[in-house]
Amino acid sequence: MPEIEVVRRWQRQMDSQRKMLAADGRSVEVIYPGRLNDGRGGDFKDAVILSGNDVKQGNIEIHSCTSGWQAHGHHLDPHYNQVVLHVAWQQDSGECIFLEDGQSVPTIVLDRELADMEEGGKTLPCRMSQTAELSNILERLGETRLAEKVERFSSALQKMEAEQVFYVGLLEALGYSKNKRPFLNLACQVPLTDLKQLGVGGWDRIRLQAFLLGSAGLLPSQRRLKECADSYVGELEKIWSEIGSVQLMSHLDWEFFRVRPSNNPVCRIIALSHVFFRYRRYGWLDTWHRVIERAVEDDKGVDWGALLRVRAQDYWYGRYDFCPSAVSRNKWLLGEGRANEIVINVIFPFFKAWGELIGENKLVSGLDNIIRRYPPCETNSIQKHMLGQLKAEKALVNSALRQQGLLYLYKSYCTQGRCLECLLNK
User: Fold this and answer.
1) What is the sign of the dihedral through the CA atoms of 108, 113, 119 and 120?
2) What pLDDT, in 10s, does the model give residues 256-297?
3) What single DSSP character describes residue 254?
4) Long-range pairs for 201-206 at CB < 8 Å and ≥24 separation?
5) Which residues contact 341 (CB under 8 A, 6 or more apart)?
6) Which DSSP helix (H) or strand (E) runs through 133?
């Protein structure tokens, strides 16, 4: 049976029965089946299972036959060490499934007789939630998620300068999900004060780009990329060699596998250089403070993403990396979708935390009103997954606040196996 068909049958199985017996006789209950993985290390990610008496969180890998695990070399690949359950349609080998780190995982064989499977473990309790109830719950959870972000920024503001806290939050958001950790590392290795130092004696955008890319280990010479000869690339390499800085990160720290062109770390760092260059006159805080003060009075004419969007131009028009094959039709290095997500996930919670710290009560209450009215951002893979899981219409999530609620539900309940505590289960 083709593997894609096994995946479909497994998903149907999860709609009717989630408690079963593994090939070795162990009792396995899938508390949460996870979502389709767009990266390495399993077909489904963020699953939660109960194996015997142990609750395990991780990924689920699916094959046509049990021998596929070794045939595909997963037992030698550390990316698969996060797998907690192996599923196959047929059993054609008696071998135990071992991870690269030596741990074993149970295997479910789907074509076994149903008599071999335990009763119970019905469909997820949140399916078919009432629409009116669901919308209210999502707004409450969205407020909780944003409050946690505000608290996180408040804590950081006790330890770091406000501009550095803002800078760290921006870089974390630029990393999206797959490169969040490397971008956080870059923000610590190359603090905002270092970037400001480059501007002493006059600003030069290409000098800023060379410094950021070189520090991140992403210049062509650092990645041993060939056929990248270009006057612009040559200037980047020349500037980096003259700066004489020590390479702080390696290209191996970054994730490129199945990363969308617009989320490529090189593309994001070039966008960052443009955003920073844009802030060079008034700085991060003053620029956004003015925008927010105007919006508190009347936000109807405020284009929130305007200070973040970066249009592709010159060398970067039609490309997202240095490789000749890295061609893209995207006209933006940082487009409207990502800009809006940064506004709701970084700008608003940061300035609420900062406003509370400096006693600007009018700004804080004004931001609360703006957040409640802020339109939804682009639908990402988690939100699509959750809408399918809840069997809800996309139109239900008609605000950024409800989107935040979906994300909170997924990350704080679904992927933690907390179905019994979930508001949708009550």
Assistant:
1) positive
2) 988 999 999 999 999 999 999 888 888 888 999 999 998 888
3) S
4) 203/277, 203/280, 205/273, 205/274, 205/277, 206/232, 206/235, 206/236, 206/239
5) 173, 377, 378
6) helix 131-157
